[in-house]
Structure formats: structure tokens, C-alpha cells
């Protein structure tokens, strides 16, 4: 192909699909074929290989963990934005307002949230900004947001807290008030907000090191890439990490019908755990 793209046979596409499923739980439809060609061709060329079969062979035999990670990073879809599906943040603010009245929580001053599949950070930063905006007293609380993603490139970018001014387009002055202009068309999330968030690479298909319980989990627009059994396993595990009073927020095109019996729907793409409470301990 003359645009630097390498042709991909049905067999090669199948092999790529199997690999990304095994590594990341991502189920790719036929519609992703063009995406695979455009994203992986660059890597194949960089490795001085000429076909996808050579690349798959390389991944099977000689690839380092970094090569495998590069393959995964290339195939993730990271679309996100600040205050995306903003009714979730209104709900969260109300939820935390109730927790602030809970004597036990008031005494511990401890809040824990998880943004699972956080991409470039807009989701966890929005959680923090919405909460600090509504409850400035949280600055002296032990509030922590764990933000994880399988894609190590987006996790690195998220950690900088640096975005383009354009990324704030459409946000009200109240919602954009925390961003600090850097004078070059970029803005940065202030230190006190960045300190509340721990960004970590984490493959949701692997073991999770954290114990919970979380006061809320955001796992939005991630499960759409997984098949039903994978979603079921993942959401069941999330249910185990949610506090009994916690909420699970999922993406606008996702639902837990026939995926998990462990949650009940309490709002638009907002769920509560049905069953056994997780005990409050270290997250
Ligand atoms: C479309 S983004 C969603 C970002 C954000 N949650 C939102 O709704 O705006 C999906 C993210 O899920 C991540 N992802 C896909 N498979 C994953 C896996 N197995 N483990 C962890 N993260 C994964 C991708 O890397 C990507 O950043």
C-alpha cells in the first residue's frame, strides 16, 4: 500500500484479534480492521518487518514486555473528556454530600474512589474537581482517587495533568476554574488536585492489588470492548470492592442486564451493590 500501510489478510487479522483478546480482554469486531492496519503498520515498519505475519511471529517469540505493551497501547481506544456524561458527577456530589453527614465517615475523614479505565485522566480529575468544587472542606480530608488503565501511554500523560486549552471547550467557568494556564496554550491541573489521584497502569483482566472498599467506582466506556463473560467477571469483582453504600457508574451505551445479578439499577447507568457489604479497611 502506498500510504505506508501494510496489507492485512483475514488470517493475520484473526491472529491480531486473538492476541488482543488474550492480553487485554478486548473483543474486536470486523469494523476494527482499518484501525488495526493504521495503528500497527507504523510499529511493523519500525521493527523493520514487512508483513503482519512477521509481526505476530515476533510477538509470539522474541518480543520484550515493552513490545507487548506497545501492541496493547496501539489498539486501545482512549476517547474521553472532562465532565463526560455529567449527570454522574451530579449524582456523585449528592452521594458524597450524604457521606459527609455519616458519623463514621465524618470521624475517619476518609473517601476512596476508583476510575477504572481512566484513559488520559479527564474522568478522575473531573471526580476530584466536582467534589472540591462542591465541598472545599475535602481539601483537609483523606480523599484518594485511584485511576488505572491498561495503556501505559495514557497513564503517563494523565500524570502530568497538562491539557490543551481546547480540551476545556464548552465547560462553564465554574467547571474550568481549577485549571492553571501555562501560557503556551496548555493548562494544568493544580497540585492539590493531582496529589489526590494515584495513576497506575492496571490490566482489568489481571489480579487487582487493591482491597477497597470504594465509595464509588467509575468504569465507563470500558466494558463495551469486552464480551459478556469478561464483563460479568469484571463487574462481579468490582461489586466485591464497593462499600455497601457505594455506587458503580458505567458508560452511556452499557448496562448490566444479563451481565451481573449483583447490582441494582438506581439511576441512568448508575448501580448499587445488592449483596454482601465489603468491610471498611485500607484501599
Ligand atoms: C474509551 S476510554 C474511556 C475513558 C473514560 N472512562 C471515559 O468514559 O471517558 C476506554 C479505556 O479503557 C482502557 N482499557 C481497555 N481495556 C482495558 C483493560 N483490559 N484493562 C484496563 N483498561 C482497559 C483503554 O486503554 C481506554 O483508555
Automatic annotation (TrEMBL):
<feature type="binding site">
    <location>
        <position position="80"/>
    </location>
    <ligand>
        <name>S-adenosyl-L-methionine</name>
    </ligand>
</feature>
<dbReference type="GO" id="GO:0008983">
    <property type="term" value="F:protein-glutamate O-methyltransferase activity"/>
</dbReference>
<keyword id="KW-0808">Transferase</keyword>
<feature type="domain" description="CheR-type methyltransferase">
    <location>
        <begin position="1"/>
        <end position="276"/>
    </location>
</feature>
<dbReference type="InterPro" id="IPR022642">
    <property type="entry name" value="CheR_C"/>
</dbReference>
<dbReference type="InterPro" id="IPR050903">
    <property type="entry name" value="Bact_Chemotaxis_MeTrfase"/>
</dbReference>
<feature type="binding site">
    <location>
        <begin position="220"/>
        <end position="221"/>
    </location>
    <ligand>
        <name>S-adenosyl-L-methionine</name>
    </ligand>
</feature>
<feature type="binding site">
    <location>
        <position position="149"/>
    </location>
    <ligand>
        <name>S-adenosyl-L-methionine</name>
    </ligand>
</feature>
<dbReference type="InterPro" id="IPR036804">
    <property type="entry name" value="CheR_N_sf"/>
</dbReference>
<dbReference type="InterPro" id="IPR022641">
    <property type="entry name" value="CheR_N"/>
</dbReference>
<feature type="binding site">
    <location>
        <position position="84"/>
    </location>
    <ligand>
        <name>S-adenosyl-L-methionine</name>
    </ligand>
</feature>
<comment type="function">
    <text>Methylation of the membrane-bound methyl-accepting chemotaxis proteins (MCP) to form gamma-glutamyl methyl ester residues in MCP.</text>
</comment>
<dbReference type="Pfam" id="PF01739">
    <property type="entry name" value="CheR"/>
</dbReference>
<keyword id="KW-0489">Methyltransferase</keyword>
<feature type="binding site">
    <location>
        <position position="78"/>
    </location>
    <ligand>
        <name>S-adenosyl-L-methionine</name>
    </ligand>
</feature>
<keyword id="KW-0949">S-adenosyl-L-methionine</keyword>
<feature type="binding site">
    <location>
        <begin position="203"/>
        <end position="204"/>
    </location>
    <ligand>
        <name>S-adenosyl-L-methionine</name>
    </ligand>
</feature>
<dbReference type="InterPro" id="IPR026024">
    <property type="entry name" value="Chemotaxis_MeTrfase_CheR"/>
</dbReference>
<feature type="binding site">
    <location>
        <position position="123"/>
    </location>
    <ligand>
        <name>S-adenosyl-L-methionine</name>
    </ligand>
</feature>
<dbReference type="InterPro" id="IPR029063">
    <property type="entry name" value="SAM-dependent_MTases_sf"/>
</dbReference>
<protein>
    <recommendedName>
        <fullName>Chemotaxis protein methyltransferase</fullName>
        <ecNumber>2.1.1.80</ecNumber>
    </recommendedName>
</protein>
<dbReference type="Pfam" id="PF03705">
    <property type="entry name" value="CheR_N"/>
</dbReference>
<dbReference type="InterPro" id="IPR000780">
    <property type="entry name" value="CheR_MeTrfase"/>
</dbReference>
<dbReference type="GO" id="GO:0032259">
    <property type="term" value="P:methylation"/>
</dbReference>
Amino acid at each position: 500500500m502506498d500510504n505506508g500501510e501494510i496489507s492485512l489478510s483475514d488470517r493475520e487479522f484473526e491472529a491480531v484479534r486473538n492476541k488482543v483478546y488474550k492480553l487485554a480482554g478486548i473483543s474486536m469486531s470486523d469494523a476494527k480492521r482499518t484501525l488495526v492496519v493504521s495503528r500497527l503498520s507504523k510499529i511493523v515498519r519500525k521493527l523493520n518487518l514487512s508483513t503482519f505475519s512477521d509481526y505476530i511471529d515476533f510477538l509470539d517469540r522474541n518480543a520484550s514486555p515493552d513490545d507487548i505493551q506497545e501492541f496493547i497501547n496501539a489498539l486501545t481506544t482512549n476517547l474521553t473528556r472532562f465532565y463526560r456524561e455529567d449527570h454522574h458527577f451530579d449524582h456523585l456530589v449528592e452521594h458524597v454530600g450524604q457521606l459527609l453527614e455519616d458519623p463514621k465517615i465524618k470521624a475517619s475523614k476518609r473517601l476512596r474512589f476508583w476510575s477504572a479505565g481512566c484513559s488520559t485522566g479527564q474522568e478522575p480529575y473531573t471526580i476530584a474537581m466536582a467534589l472540591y468544587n462542591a465541598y472545599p472542606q475535602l481539601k483537609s480530608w483523606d480523599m484518594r482517587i485511584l485511576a488505572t488503565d491498561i495503556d501505559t501511554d495514557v497513564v503517563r500523560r494523565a500524570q502530568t495533568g497538562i491539557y490543551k486549552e481546547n480540551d476545556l471547550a464548552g465547560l462553564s467557568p465554574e467547571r474550568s476554574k481549577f485549571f492553571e494556564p501555562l501560557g503556551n496554550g496548555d493548562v494544568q491541573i493544580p497540585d492539590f488536585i493531582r496529589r489526590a489521584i494515584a495513576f497506575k497502569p492496571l490490566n482489568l483482566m489481571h489480579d487487582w492489588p487493591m482491597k477497597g472498599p470504594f465509595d464509588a467506582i467509575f468504569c465507563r466506556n470500558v466494558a463495551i470492548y469486552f464480551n459478556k463473560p469478561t464483563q460479568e467477571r469484571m463487574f462481579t469483582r468490582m461489586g466485591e470492592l464497593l462499600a455497601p453504600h457505594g455506587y458503580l457508574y458505567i458508560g452511556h451505551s452499557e448496562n448490566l442486564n444479563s451481565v451481573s445479578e449483583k447490582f441494582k439499577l438506581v439511576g441512568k447507568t448508575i448501580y448499587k451493590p445488592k449483596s454482601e457489604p465489603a468491610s471498611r479497611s485500607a484501599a
